[in-house]
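Summary for the funding panel

The consortium committed to producing paired sequence-structure records for every protein in the target list. Below we show the first two records in order, beginning with the earlier of the two.
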Amino acid sequence: MPNNIADQEGVEGNSEGNALVDKLLIYKELVSIIIFFAGGVVWIYAAFATQDTVDAIQQDNQKSLATIECLIGAAIAGRGLDQTIEQLKHRQMMLTLQRAELLESRESGGVTVVTQVHELELELAEAKRDMGLAIDERAKQDTIMKNKECSQ
């Protein structure tokens, strides 16, 4: 028996709480099942991607693929330009040698040698112009590769 009135009130309040707990104990399995399935639904939503997430991933992949294709194209174009530059250097060297040979034989040649020298000088100027264009284009490809940016 409780010694004072305050203890008696605590016991009465406790008995009301016990009655509520007793009523809820009847439904404990039902509450457990509901909580279990609600947790499963939350886990499924968090664990698996939604269509928006899948769409965002596909869009990012498409952007990445486009960038990679552009960079590969720039690398291939750069290699082609390197070969073109080497060919143009070789052409310039050959034209310069031919011009030097013609200038040495100029004393014995006459008008035809002067015409041939002039034609070689025109070809040499064209080769130099082509070389400048190829070098400029190669610089653009290098910039694309270094900055990893493609304008499409």
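The next record, for a separate protein in the list, is shown here:
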Amino acid sequence: MDDAKIPEGLVDGINATITEAVRNLAEVTRYAHGNEPFDVPRMVLYLLGDAIDTLSQISRVVAPYYRERGLAEHDLLSFLQPGQRLPLRGHATTTNRQPLRQDDFKVSSWS
């Protein structure tokens, strides 16, 4: 594999994505206390699902980076959870089905 180090711009995007997931998880605790005028089980489960989807985005961006750098396909697939493997053949998507782009992570280039 050419270079195992993740570029700084991509690391910044990963950190931003983690922060977004943590915000979703913090909202879970707010709704779980039942002080909000919403359907608590629905909101708790929506927010937990959003956090999981948000964190899965990271592997859908980092895995193609490593593929382009020469990581063997069988290794790449063995490192990912089964649910993370399917989107790697095409474009990764967010929970609102908009294609992820490098610009979403403020990466000027993969190198």
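Regarding this second record: The CA atoms of residues 21 and 70 lie 29 Å apart. Helices lie at 8-32, 40-68, 73-79, 82-85.
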